[in-house]
UniProtKB/TrEMBL annotation:
Pathway: Pyrimidine metabolism; UMP biosynthesis via de novo pathway; UMP from orotate: step 2/2. This is Orotidine 5'-phosphate decarboxylase. The active site is at 63 (proton donor). Gene3D superfamilies: Aldolase class I. It comes from Streptomyces nojiriensis. Keywords: Decarboxylase, Lyase, Pyrimidine biosynthesis. It comes from the Bacteria. The gene is pyrF_1. Its EC number is 4.1.1.23. Homodimer.
Amino acid sequence: MEPTSRIIVALDFDNRRAADEVVDRLGEECRFYKVGMELLTAAGPDLIEHLIAKGKDVFLDLKLFEIPNSVAGAVRAAGALGVSMVTVHSMGGTGILAAAVAAARDFPHLRVLALTVVTSMTSSDLADIGITGSTSTEEQVLRLARLAEGAGCHGVIASPQEAGPLRAALGAGTLIVTPGVALPGEAPGEHARPGTPRAAVAAGASHVVVGRTVTRAADPAAAFRLVRASLEL
């Protein structure tokens, strides 16, 4: 996969004006954007339609975790908007994962990705929600990834630190999308299990999600080119 196609820029803003400014400044450099719950709530689906009309791919990161019928409805709505990826929370179990996959079948361009363990969580956080004993974060990620694979999901979301074990477990055809990446020397922010873009891809990630590294840079296009260059080494 060509390096630019691997990079998803996260539009983690609370207003459309800020998102539009970054998209405009990146211009033709970036092809793929992530829109999460905050920006979708603030700006509405018009933003997604605008991005797609500009020829961009959109990763709609909703982390759906509801009854299967509601999840299916949200996936169909995402497909009708034209997005390329939508996320479902694997902790919801086989029922919602399978419902999402079934709903996506009417939209050949749409890929359902299962969130495993969010990148801000550690083993102690898992213990807080009752996942105790000797279960490590990596073990929980792999367990949920296999559940998602069995339900027919097209890929998973996990931290860069699990990209290698996931690729070994899931094989070559599965999408592995890794948030929590930053260039060497940059602070990881809220991500407890970070990594660099190059390390994530080398380990097996199909895509990396880059946020502040690009969107808060003085020159977003130059920062994007640095991320891309790191994948070309």
